[in-house]
Amino acid sequence: MTMKLPVRLTPYIKTRYPYNKLKICRRCNYFTVLGESECPVCGKFALQSAEERAASALRRSFWRSRFIVLFITIVGLVLSGSALQTTLLAIGGTALLALLWTMQRRSNPALLRLELEKLFHREAYTLIAGLANDRETAIAVFHNGDKPLAYEMLREIGALVHTDQLRIEQILLLQSFVLRKDMDLMLEPLLMDHFNPDLVEYIGELAKIRRDLLKENTFRYILLYEAQILKMEHGESILVGVAGAAVRMKRYLTLYPYLVLRYARKLPKDRFLRLYRMIQSYPKSSFGPLYEEVMSVYNERYKWDEDFLQTNK
Asked: How many angstroms from the chain centroid is the CA of residue 25?
C-alpha cells in the first residue's frame, strides 16, 4: 500500500474570470498562468496580464479615433471660409470629441471583453503552446519530487485547460496526499464525462471530510455510474458516504431520493439521525418512498434510542 504524504497546500485564489491570472510575455509573446513577473519560457521579467495587453490595445484604438476626429476638425478649420464657419466647426468638433470620449469611457468594459476575445482568437496557437509548456513545467516539478507544488501548478492550469488528462493528474496527486478538512480542496472542476475509479475514490474521501463539496453534479455522476462503483473494492462504502452527504440539504433528498433510499440502512447513526430529523420536519408527501424506508429503519433500529426519543419530544 502506498503511503500518503502529509502536505500543506497553498489556498487557491479565485478570480472573477479564469483568464484573470493569464499573463503574456512582452518579449517572447508566450502565455502562462504560472509566472508572476519572470517569463518561464524566455526568463525575462516582462510578464503582463492578458487584460493589460487588451487594455493597451483598446487605448490605442481610442486615441486613433480621437485623433481622426481632431484631424478632421483641424482640416475643417483651416479650410473654413468665414468666421461663422470657423466657430461652428470649432464647436461641432469639440462637441463630437467630447461625445466620443464619453461613449468610449462608458463602453470601455464591454469593448475590453471584445478586445480580449480578439486577443485570444488571434493568439490561439501561442496560448495553447504556452499552457502546454506550463503543464510540462508542472510535470517536471513532480518528477523532481515536489508533489504539492506540482498539484498547485496543475490546479492553476486546470482553471483554463479543461481536459480529462489534466483532471486525472490532479486527482492522482490529491490521492497521494493525506487529505484534511482544513485543506482548500475542490471537486466540481475535476468531474468527468466518463467513469473513473480514481475520481470515485476521491469523491469517497471528500464524503468523509468535506461533504459540502458534494453538490448536484457529483450526485448525478454517482447515480450515472452506480453499477460500476458497486463493483469497486470499497464501492458500497463510497456510495453510503455519498448518500450521507446528500442528507445535508432537503433539496438533495427531493432530487435524489432513491440514492438515499438504497443506502439508508447502512448510514452511520449520526447521518441517519439527521435524515430522520429532516424527514420529520416536512410533510410526508415531500419524500414519497424515502419516508417509508426511513420510518422502517427507525422502527427496526432506533425506536428506543435516546437521541431519537429527544427528537420526537
From this structure: 25
pLDDT tens, 66-113? 888 788 888 877 777 677 777 877 787 788 888 878 888 888 888 889
Question: pTM of the full predicted structure?
Answer: 0.84
Residue with cell 447515480: 223
Joined grid coordinates for residue 159: 482553471
> What end-to-end distance do the CA atoms of the chain give, in Å?
48
Q: Which three cell numbers stand for residue 307?
A: 437521541
Residue-wise burial string across 225-241, b where 16 or more C-beta atoms lie within 10 A, e elsewhere: beeebeeeeebeebbbb
Whose grid coordinates read 420536519? 281
Task: Give the tens place of pLDDT for each residue, 264-299.
Answer: 999 999 999 999 989 888 887 778 899 999 999 989
What lies within 8 Å, CB to CB, of 223 at 6+ separation is 256, 259
CA distances to 62, 252, 256, 285 from 206, in Å: 50, 17, 19, 31
Grid coordinates 490532479 are at which residue? 170
Specify the 3-state DSSP secondary structure of 25. Answer: strand
Amino acid at 106: R
Residue 106 corresponds to which cell in the numbers above?
A: 462608458
Judge residue 134's burial from the number of C-beta atoms within 10 Å of its C-beta, 0-12 exposed, 13-18 middle, 19 or more buried. Answer: buried
